[in-house]
């Protein structure tokens, strides 16, 4: 078997496995049940698996268009790249989308701002365009509101006013999930869809096209964060140049990490009745500081500088929530901040050619940052 054949089999096999895992995850979201048998719960079968394609096909289509946007643009710029690697992940207990995404690996040194820009912007804009189509279809083809009774027959006793009663007195281990609004999703919900058919926020996860489109916007926004070697970082680097980007990016990263951890710990958390509880809280606080330090460890070559930045961020978070206890960030972003700061990198590789972008590329670059604003949600998933 030739190396090329093995390569095609690897990429094709990963895609097929990811298609299966996203289909299973999509079916679990749609029907609110699992494929793994659990006592007291009816398991999903083949018929529900087939229905799961309503989620996996549009979602993977957007993901694939995104990655091949990078791939073909890299080829056009004579940069060697791999085909997309898809990462399947199905955990079998719900709360999974069946994949960790996909990526291509660049095999050449990219020597110019313009090439970084072209390759970086092609993926998000291509995927975003298809996401708009999926969202438009999803919001203009909503089933009648009574559809929710096929998922939750127990809601029928309340009728279409179930939202006032269904979520009261839920067990502690049951936390309904709502898709947090962003500007674009909110526009489709309020100006494209039939208001009578828009489901309750806690039930949108059962609508596969809405779920696929929303997740596409969420991942587009993450990719377009203008930090480091994310797609948004490549774009901003090309727009403003190396010197300015190398101090703008760490500032943006610090602001992102600050927001992510805002409210995780509050001064009032330490007002506990026993010494044991106090030391337990203090230990958790120390772990949080260590976690943030690891995220900031590559912001400077000087470890003391990284520690000072970490402690300054934590201290400022405590002051803000002491003055305004109602203000909270989104702790779900902390994991991404850690991966970004520790592994992906806050800074951008230098390029030999520092040529400025032409007018069309500058316009596209600022348009991509507008797309980021439209897709970004401060609280993307609300429990």
Characterize the structure shown:
This protein has 383 residues and is mostly helical. The protein is built from 13 helices and four strands. Strand 1 (85-89) and strand 2 (98-103) form a beta hairpin. Helix 9 packs across helix 11 (303-323) and helix 10 packs across helix 12. The mean pLDDT is 94.
Quick recap:
With 383 residues, this protein is mostly helical. Helices cover 57% and strands 4% of the residues. The protein contains 13 helices and four strands.
Outline the secondary-structure elements:
Blueprint: H1 3-31, H2 46-51, H3 53-76, E1 85-89, E2 98-103, H4 113-140, H5 148-151, E3 178-179, H6 183-191, H7 208-223, H8 231-240, H9 242-261, H10 275-296, H11 303-323, H12 333-344, H13 359-375, E4 381-382
Main location: membrane
Membrane topology: Multi-pass membrane protein
Family: Belongs to the peptidase M50B family.
Mean pLDDT: 94
The oligomerization state is single chain
- What Rg is obtained from the alpha carbons, in whole angstroms? 23 Å
Low-confidence stretches: none
Taking strands numbered 1, 2, ... along the chain, how are they ordered across the largest sheet? 1-2
The tally of structural domains comes to 2
User: Count of helices?
Assistant: 13
**Helix content, binned percent:** 55-70%
Distance between the termini: 50 Å
Could you tell me the strand content as a percent range?
under 5%
Structural class: mainly alpha
Write the element-wise H/E pattern from the N-terminal end onward: HHHEEHHEHHHHHHHHE
Judging from the principal axes of the Cα atoms, what is the shape? globular
Largest sheet: 2 strands, antiparallel
In total, the number of strands is 4
Cofactor: Zn(2+)
GO molecular function, one term: peptidase activity
Pfam families: Peptidase_M50 (PF02163)
Main location: membrane
């Amino acid at each position: 078997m030739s190396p090329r054949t093995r390569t095609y089999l690897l990429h094709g096999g990963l895609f097929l496995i990811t298609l299966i895992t996203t289909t299973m995850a999509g079916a679990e979201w749609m029907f609110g049940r699992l494929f793994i048998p659990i006592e007291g719960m009816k398991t999903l079968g083949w018929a529900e698996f087939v229905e799961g394609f309503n989620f996996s096909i549009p979602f993977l289509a957007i993901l694939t268009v995104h990655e091949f946007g990078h791939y073909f643009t890299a080829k056009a710029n004579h940069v060697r790249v791999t085909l997309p690697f898809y990462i399947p992940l199905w955990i079998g207990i719900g709360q999974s989308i069946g994949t960790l995404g996909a990526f291509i690996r660049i095999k050449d040194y990219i020597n110019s701002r313009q090439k970084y820009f072209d390759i970086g912007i092609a993926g998000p804009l291509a995927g975003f365009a298809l996401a708009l189509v999926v969202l438009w279809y999803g919001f203009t083809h909503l089933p009648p509101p009574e559809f929710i009774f096929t998922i939750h027959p127990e809601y029928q006793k309340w009728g279409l006013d179930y939202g006032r009663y269904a979520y009261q007195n839920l067990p502690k281990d049951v936390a309904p999930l709502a898709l947090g609004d962003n500007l674009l999703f909110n526009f489709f919900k309020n100006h494209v869809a039939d208001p009578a058919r828009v489901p309750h926020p806690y039930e949108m996860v059962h609508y596969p096209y809405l779920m696929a489109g929303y997740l596409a916007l969420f991942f587009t926004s993450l990719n377009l964060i203008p930090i480091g070697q994310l797609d948004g970082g490549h774009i901003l680097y090309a727009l403003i140049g190396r010197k300015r980007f190398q101090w703008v990016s760490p500032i943006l990263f610090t602001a992102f990490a600050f927001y992510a951890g805002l409210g995780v710990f509050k001064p009032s958390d330490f007002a506990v009745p026993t010494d044991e509880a106090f030391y337990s809280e203090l230990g958790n606080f120390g772990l949080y500081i260590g976690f943030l330090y690891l995220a900031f460890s590559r912001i400077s070559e000087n470890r003391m500088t990284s520690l000072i930045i970490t402690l300054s961020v934590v201290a400022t978070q405590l002051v803000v929530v002491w003055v305004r206890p109602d203000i909270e960030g989104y702790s779900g972003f902390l994991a991404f901040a850690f991966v970004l700061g520790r592994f992906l990198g806050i800074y951008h590789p230098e390029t030999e050619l520092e040529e400025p972008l032409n007018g069309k590329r500058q316009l596209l670059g600022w348009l991509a940052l507008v797309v980021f604003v439209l897709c970004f949600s401060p609280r993307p998933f609300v429990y």
